Predict the structure.
Amino acid sequence: MLKTTPIQGEFGVRIEGLDLDRPLDPNVVKELIDTLHEHRLIVLKGQSPDKEQYMAFGPHFGRLNEHMIRKSRMKGYPAMIELSNVMANGEKPSRAAVYWHTDMCWEREPSSVTMLYAIEAPESGGETLIADMVQAYDDLPLETKNRIEGLKAIHYYGMGVATRKEDIGPKPLKPQIEKDEDVGAEHLLARPHSVTGRIALYSPAGTSRGIVGMDQDEATALLNELSDHAIQPKYIYEHKWSVGDIVMYDTSLTMHTGTPIDAATGPKDTRRLYRISVKGKPPIYA
Ligand SMILES: [Fe+2]
Protein backbone atom coordinates (compact mmCIF):
# COMPACT_ATOMS: atom_id res chain seq x y z
CA MET A 1 0.00 0.00 0.00
CA LEU A 2 1.27 3.44 -0.93
CA LYS A 3 1.44 6.08 1.77
CA THR A 4 -0.76 8.87 0.44
CA THR A 5 -1.68 12.26 1.86
CA PRO A 6 -4.69 14.14 0.46
CA ILE A 7 -4.01 17.56 -1.05
CA GLN A 8 -7.39 19.29 -1.51
CA GLY A 9 -10.18 16.98 -0.41
CA GLU A 10 -10.55 14.33 -3.11
CA PHE A 11 -8.40 16.33 -5.54
CA GLY A 12 -4.79 15.22 -5.53
CA VAL A 13 -2.60 13.11 -3.27
CA ARG A 14 1.00 13.45 -2.22
CA ILE A 15 2.97 10.20 -2.18
CA GLU A 16 6.21 9.68 -0.33
CA GLY A 17 8.45 6.64 -0.02
CA LEU A 18 8.30 5.65 -3.67
CA ASP A 19 11.58 5.27 -5.55
CA LEU A 20 11.47 5.64 -9.33
CA ASP A 21 15.18 4.81 -9.60
CA ARG A 22 14.09 1.18 -9.50
CA PRO A 23 11.57 -0.83 -11.49
CA LEU A 24 8.20 -0.78 -9.77
CA ASP A 25 6.30 -3.79 -8.53
CA PRO A 26 3.22 -4.35 -10.77
CA ASN A 27 0.94 -4.00 -7.73
CA VAL A 28 2.43 -0.58 -6.99
CA VAL A 29 1.96 0.45 -10.62
CA LYS A 30 -1.71 -0.56 -10.50
CA GLU A 31 -2.18 1.33 -7.25
CA LEU A 32 -0.59 4.44 -8.74
CA ILE A 33 -2.80 4.27 -11.83
CA ASP A 34 -5.97 3.72 -9.81
CA THR A 35 -4.97 6.53 -7.44
CA LEU A 36 -4.44 8.89 -10.37
CA HIS A 37 -7.80 8.00 -11.90
CA GLU A 38 -9.54 8.53 -8.58
CA HIS A 39 -7.73 11.67 -7.40
CA ARG A 40 -6.76 13.22 -10.78
CA LEU A 41 -3.41 14.50 -9.51
CA ILE A 42 -0.37 12.87 -7.88
CA VAL A 43 2.63 14.67 -6.41
CA LEU A 44 5.69 12.47 -5.87
CA LYS A 45 8.44 13.98 -3.73
CA GLY A 46 12.18 13.37 -3.63
CA GLN A 47 12.59 11.54 -6.95
CA SER A 48 15.85 11.13 -8.84
CA PRO A 49 15.37 8.82 -11.83
CA ASP A 50 17.68 9.36 -14.78
CA LYS A 51 16.18 9.96 -18.22
CA GLU A 52 15.98 6.24 -19.05
CA GLN A 53 14.32 5.40 -15.74
CA TYR A 54 11.85 8.28 -16.16
CA MET A 55 11.12 7.21 -19.73
CA ALA A 56 10.48 3.68 -18.45
CA PHE A 57 7.99 5.02 -15.88
CA GLY A 58 5.83 6.99 -18.33
CA PRO A 59 4.47 4.08 -20.41
CA HIS A 60 2.85 2.48 -17.35
CA PHE A 61 0.13 5.11 -17.88
CA GLY A 62 -0.34 4.99 -21.66
CA ARG A 63 1.44 5.17 -25.00
CA LEU A 64 4.15 7.81 -25.31
CA ASN A 65 2.85 10.91 -27.08
CA GLU A 66 5.36 12.88 -29.14
CA HIS A 67 4.56 16.57 -29.50
CA MET A 68 3.19 17.76 -32.83
CA ILE A 69 5.72 20.62 -32.83
CA ARG A 70 8.87 18.70 -33.68
CA LYS A 71 11.32 21.29 -32.37
CA SER A 72 9.78 20.84 -28.89
CA ARG A 73 11.01 17.25 -28.71
CA MET A 74 14.15 16.50 -26.71
CA LYS A 75 17.14 15.29 -28.69
CA GLY A 76 17.48 11.53 -28.26
CA TYR A 77 14.21 11.41 -26.30
CA PRO A 78 11.48 12.50 -28.73
CA ALA A 79 8.68 11.73 -26.28
CA MET A 80 10.17 14.07 -23.71
CA ILE A 81 10.10 17.88 -23.63
CA GLU A 82 12.46 20.02 -21.59
CA LEU A 83 10.72 23.09 -20.17
CA SER A 84 13.48 25.44 -19.16
CA ASN A 85 14.05 29.14 -18.56
CA VAL A 86 17.79 28.86 -19.23
CA MET A 87 18.10 31.05 -22.32
CA ALA A 88 20.91 32.09 -24.60
CA ASN A 89 21.56 35.63 -25.87
CA GLY A 90 18.90 37.48 -23.90
CA GLU A 91 16.04 35.44 -25.35
CA LYS A 92 12.80 35.24 -23.39
CA PRO A 93 11.58 31.86 -22.07
CA SER A 94 8.67 30.27 -23.90
CA ARG A 95 5.30 31.08 -22.40
CA ALA A 96 3.47 28.63 -24.63
CA ALA A 97 1.88 26.88 -21.65
CA VAL A 98 0.67 30.02 -19.86
CA TYR A 99 -3.02 29.54 -20.55
CA TRP A 100 -5.58 27.13 -19.17
CA HIS A 101 -5.58 24.09 -21.43
CA THR A 102 -5.48 20.33 -21.72
CA ASP A 103 -2.47 18.75 -23.39
CA MET A 104 -2.83 17.89 -27.04
CA CYS A 105 -6.60 18.01 -27.08
CA TRP A 106 -6.40 19.35 -30.62
CA GLU A 107 -5.64 15.72 -31.52
CA ARG A 108 -8.26 13.03 -31.97
CA GLU A 109 -6.47 10.99 -29.33
CA PRO A 110 -5.27 13.62 -26.84
CA SER A 111 -2.88 13.11 -23.97
CA SER A 112 -4.36 11.08 -21.17
CA VAL A 113 -1.67 11.67 -18.56
CA THR A 114 1.11 14.25 -18.34
CA MET A 115 3.98 14.17 -15.86
CA LEU A 116 6.45 16.93 -15.04
CA TYR A 117 9.74 16.19 -13.28
CA ALA A 118 11.71 19.02 -11.66
CA ILE A 119 15.44 18.82 -12.41
CA GLU A 120 15.99 22.38 -11.20
CA ALA A 121 13.57 24.56 -9.27
CA PRO A 122 13.50 28.30 -8.58
CA GLU A 123 13.14 29.70 -5.07
CA SER A 124 9.91 31.30 -6.23
CA GLY A 125 7.90 31.76 -9.40
CA GLY A 126 7.12 29.45 -12.30
CA GLU A 127 4.41 27.59 -10.41
CA THR A 128 2.10 25.17 -12.22
CA LEU A 129 -1.64 25.45 -11.60
CA ILE A 130 -3.91 22.43 -12.04
CA ALA A 131 -7.70 22.58 -11.89
CA ASP A 132 -10.08 19.79 -10.92
CA MET A 133 -12.54 19.24 -13.76
CA VAL A 134 -14.41 16.43 -12.00
CA GLN A 135 -15.51 18.68 -9.15
CA ALA A 136 -16.12 21.51 -11.62
CA TYR A 137 -18.46 19.25 -13.59
CA ASP A 138 -20.17 17.87 -10.48
CA ASP A 139 -20.90 21.43 -9.29
CA LEU A 140 -22.55 22.56 -12.53
CA PRO A 141 -26.28 23.31 -12.24
CA LEU A 142 -28.38 20.44 -13.58
CA GLU A 143 -29.68 22.75 -16.30
CA THR A 144 -26.12 23.30 -17.58
CA LYS A 145 -25.30 19.59 -17.37
CA ASN A 146 -28.36 18.89 -19.50
CA ARG A 147 -27.43 21.68 -21.91
CA ILE A 148 -23.90 20.39 -22.57
CA GLU A 149 -24.72 16.68 -22.67
CA GLY A 150 -23.58 15.33 -26.04
CA LEU A 151 -22.06 18.66 -27.14
CA LYS A 152 -18.63 18.50 -28.72
CA ALA A 153 -16.09 21.31 -28.61
CA ILE A 154 -13.84 21.87 -31.61
CA HIS A 155 -10.12 22.14 -30.82
CA TYR A 156 -7.10 23.24 -32.83
CA TYR A 157 -3.55 23.94 -31.67
CA GLY A 158 -3.17 27.43 -30.18
CA MET A 159 -5.33 29.68 -28.07
CA GLY A 160 -9.02 29.56 -28.86
CA VAL A 161 -12.09 31.60 -28.03
CA ALA A 162 -12.26 31.05 -24.26
CA THR A 163 -8.97 32.47 -23.08
CA ARG A 164 -8.36 35.40 -20.72
CA LYS A 165 -6.59 38.65 -21.46
CA GLU A 166 -3.66 37.60 -19.25
CA ASP A 167 -3.13 34.35 -21.20
CA ILE A 168 -0.01 34.20 -23.35
CA GLY A 169 -0.21 30.71 -24.85
CA PRO A 170 0.60 29.80 -28.42
CA LYS A 171 -1.05 31.52 -31.33
CA PRO A 172 -2.90 29.30 -33.78
CA LEU A 173 -0.56 27.80 -36.37
CA LYS A 174 -0.34 29.33 -39.79
CA PRO A 175 -0.56 26.59 -42.39
CA GLN A 176 2.98 27.06 -43.61
CA ILE A 177 4.61 27.01 -40.17
CA GLU A 178 5.51 23.68 -38.62
CA LYS A 179 2.23 22.19 -39.62
CA ASP A 180 2.90 18.52 -39.14
CA GLU A 181 -0.60 17.37 -38.41
CA ASP A 182 -2.77 20.28 -37.34
CA VAL A 183 -6.00 18.56 -38.22
CA GLY A 184 -8.05 19.55 -35.20
CA ALA A 185 -10.40 17.38 -33.19
CA GLU A 186 -13.82 17.32 -31.59
CA HIS A 187 -14.29 16.22 -27.98
CA LEU A 188 -17.31 15.93 -25.70
CA LEU A 189 -17.53 18.76 -23.17
CA ALA A 190 -18.95 16.37 -20.58
CA ARG A 191 -16.53 13.57 -21.25
CA PRO A 192 -16.41 10.19 -19.54
CA HIS A 193 -13.00 8.88 -18.46
CA SER A 194 -11.76 6.08 -20.69
CA VAL A 195 -11.19 3.67 -17.79
CA THR A 196 -13.51 4.72 -14.96
CA GLY A 197 -16.30 6.37 -16.97
CA ARG A 198 -16.35 9.26 -14.51
CA ILE A 199 -17.51 12.43 -16.20
CA ALA A 200 -15.41 15.59 -16.16
CA LEU A 201 -15.76 18.96 -17.84
CA TYR A 202 -13.33 18.55 -20.71
CA SER A 203 -11.19 21.50 -21.71
CA PRO A 204 -13.69 24.30 -22.35
CA ALA A 205 -10.74 26.76 -22.17
CA GLY A 206 -7.48 26.78 -24.05
CA THR A 207 -7.70 25.39 -27.55
CA SER A 208 -11.49 25.33 -27.96
CA ARG A 209 -12.68 27.22 -31.05
CA GLY A 210 -16.36 26.43 -31.17
CA ILE A 211 -19.02 23.81 -30.63
CA VAL A 212 -20.19 21.39 -33.31
CA GLY A 213 -23.53 22.50 -34.77
CA MET A 214 -23.78 25.67 -32.65
CA ASP A 215 -23.78 29.28 -33.78
CA GLN A 216 -20.32 30.78 -33.13
CA ASP A 217 -21.45 33.60 -30.81
CA GLU A 218 -23.50 31.19 -28.73
CA ALA A 219 -20.61 28.68 -28.63
CA THR A 220 -18.09 31.35 -27.62
CA ALA A 221 -20.38 32.51 -24.82
CA LEU A 222 -20.95 28.97 -23.56
CA LEU A 223 -17.24 28.04 -23.68
CA ASN A 224 -16.39 31.20 -21.75
CA GLU A 225 -19.11 30.55 -19.19
CA LEU A 226 -17.82 27.00 -18.63
CA SER A 227 -14.19 28.13 -18.51
CA ASP A 228 -14.92 30.88 -15.98
CA HIS A 229 -16.69 28.31 -13.85
CA ALA A 230 -13.85 25.78 -14.17
CA ILE A 231 -10.99 28.03 -13.10
CA GLN A 232 -12.46 29.30 -9.87
CA PRO A 233 -9.82 29.25 -7.11
CA LYS A 234 -11.68 26.49 -5.22
CA TYR A 235 -10.85 24.03 -8.01
CA ILE A 236 -7.18 24.98 -8.37
CA TYR A 237 -4.06 23.42 -6.88
CA GLU A 238 -0.90 25.50 -7.18
CA HIS A 239 2.34 23.54 -7.28
CA LYS A 240 5.49 25.29 -6.10
CA TRP A 241 8.41 23.33 -7.51
CA SER A 242 11.19 21.62 -5.55
CA VAL A 243 13.95 19.57 -7.14
CA GLY A 244 12.91 15.93 -7.39
CA ASP A 245 9.17 16.61 -7.61
CA ILE A 246 7.22 14.62 -10.14
CA VAL A 247 3.71 15.98 -10.66
CA MET A 248 1.31 13.85 -12.67
CA TYR A 249 -2.17 14.77 -13.76
CA ASP A 250 -4.88 12.88 -15.56
CA THR A 251 -5.53 15.21 -18.46
CA SER A 252 -9.08 13.91 -18.99
CA LEU A 253 -9.97 15.13 -15.52
CA THR A 254 -7.99 18.38 -15.19
CA MET A 255 -6.90 21.57 -16.91
CA HIS A 256 -3.62 23.29 -16.16
CA THR A 257 -1.59 26.40 -16.84
CA GLY A 258 1.98 27.49 -16.33
CA THR A 259 2.78 30.84 -14.79
CA PRO A 260 5.24 33.22 -16.43
CA ILE A 261 8.88 32.97 -15.42
CA ASP A 262 11.72 35.24 -16.51
CA ALA A 263 14.97 34.00 -17.99
CA ALA A 264 17.24 32.38 -15.40
CA THR A 265 20.18 34.34 -14.03
CA GLY A 266 21.54 31.52 -11.83
CA PRO A 267 20.59 28.44 -9.78
CA LYS A 268 18.20 30.41 -7.53
CA ASP A 269 15.81 31.27 -10.33
CA THR A 270 16.31 28.37 -12.73
CA ARG A 271 13.39 26.11 -13.52
CA ARG A 272 13.96 23.00 -15.59
CA LEU A 273 11.23 20.39 -15.93
CA TYR A 274 11.12 17.21 -17.98
CA ARG A 275 7.69 16.55 -19.40
CA ILE A 276 6.36 13.18 -20.55
CA SER A 277 2.87 12.87 -21.94
CA VAL A 278 1.06 9.67 -22.81
CA LYS A 279 -2.17 8.86 -24.60
CA GLY A 280 -4.68 6.03 -24.50
CA LYS A 281 -5.28 3.70 -21.58
CA PRO A 282 -2.63 2.31 -19.26
CA PRO A 283 -1.46 -1.08 -20.63
CA ILE A 284 -3.07 -2.91 -17.70
CA TYR A 285 -6.46 -1.52 -18.79
CA ALA A 286 -5.93 -1.45 -22.56
FE1 LIG B 1 0.32 21.68 -20.89
Summary: Residues 216-230 form the longest helix (15 residues).
